[in-house]
Structure to design on (204 residues):
């Protein structure tokens, strides 16, 4: 999951940072909606929370996973160092850049599903070809966090991402192929309302 190259010590530091970030996200999610302990678990399915940068994928994904009591994966943590370097420099990723990353995500999901588990993944999944690649993992369903350029641009202007500059938002909207087979949720809704809608739609 290392995001940059820099030796064993740096790798350990980054791993600890990722773990700490996930714990923080989970704590925030549980304050929003309460713990998901005791939620009935259905047969293996992965819910992929998708959308452009700034749509709230990680926030909603962590909150949804907490509500369901499922594991959460953040696709950002699986990018190889080369992808991270390109994005940090403000260079959009190509399809060739994304292919190994998407395959790794599909492998991670497939491993959980084949063990009878389920989970939530936050991933941009901008193009139909990307979603098809992820769907090779098994029973994968998509939640599309839908918002316009103005709304999401305003969000990005107020945040600092580790390696995803706001300047890449236009390239993300250019690449976006809105899904026809996903459950769409308005990003302007409060997180708890988004979670309630998603759970109601999927019967979770």
């Amino acid at each position: 999951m290392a995001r940059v190259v820099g030796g064993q010590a740096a790798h350990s530091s980054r791993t600890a940072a990722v773990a700490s970030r996930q714990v923080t996200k989970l704590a925030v999610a549980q304050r929003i909606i309460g713990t998901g302990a005791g939620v009935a678990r259905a047969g293996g399915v992965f819910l992929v929370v998708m959308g452009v940068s700034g749509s709230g994928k990680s926030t909603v994904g962590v909150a949804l996973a907490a509500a369901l009591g499922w594991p959460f994966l953040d696709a950002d943590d699986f990018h190889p160092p080369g992808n991270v370097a390109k994005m940090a420099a403000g260079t959009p990723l190509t399809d060739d850049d994304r292919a190994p990353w998407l395959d790794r995500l599909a492998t991670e999901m497939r491993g959980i599903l084949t063990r009878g588990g389920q989970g939530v993944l936050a991933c941009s999944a901008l193009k139909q070809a990307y979603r098809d690649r992820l769907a090779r993992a098994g029973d994968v369903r998509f939640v599309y966090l839908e918002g316009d350029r103005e709304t999401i641009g305003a969000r990005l202007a107020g945040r600092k991402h580790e390696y995803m500059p706001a300047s890449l938002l236009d390239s993300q909207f250019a690449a976006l192929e809105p899904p026809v087979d996903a459950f769409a949720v308005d990003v302007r809704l409060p997180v708890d309302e988004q979670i309630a809608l998603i759970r109601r739609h999927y019967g979770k």
